[in-house]
Amino acid sequence: MKPHPNRSEGPRLRIKIVFGDDEMIGPGKADLLEGIDRCGSIAAAGREMGMSYKRAWELIGTLNGMFRAPLVESTRGGPGGGGAVLTELGREVLAQYRAFETDAATGGADRLRQLQSLLRDITGQE
Question: Is residue 39 part of a domain?
Fold first, then answer.
């Protein structure tokens, strides 16, 4: 009997923090920032996530415009290629968001277990 694909990992939180109508940060933007930090490129980070180049740039533009200084700095392509790095503020915003996720998961663990115990038993159903 296979576990239900949507429940195999157990309950988890996906937190979106909304600061204003068009100002928010959530798991997708945080993952994109981590990808940029790892890959050194907005395009490569977007590709890893299955995101178009245009969409990745739009999200970074939104993030850069939300905070008091840019979270990502980029250099244009050319013979040596372009690149992107997280700024000190970008690293701080990412760290604060991830810490918030951890705090929420830890603080809400009992409630998540209680909610999970109320789920319908789907064992053995395809």
Answer: yes
124 contact partners, CB below 8 Å, separation of at least 6: 1
Predicted confidence band of residue 124 (pLDDT cuts 50, 70, 90): low
Question: Whose CA is closest to 94, among 28, 22, 10, 50?
Answer: 28
| Domain count within the chain | 1
21 falls within a domain: yes
Domain enclosing residue 29, as ranges = 17-97
What is the tens place of the pLDDT at every residue in 84-95? 999 999 999 999
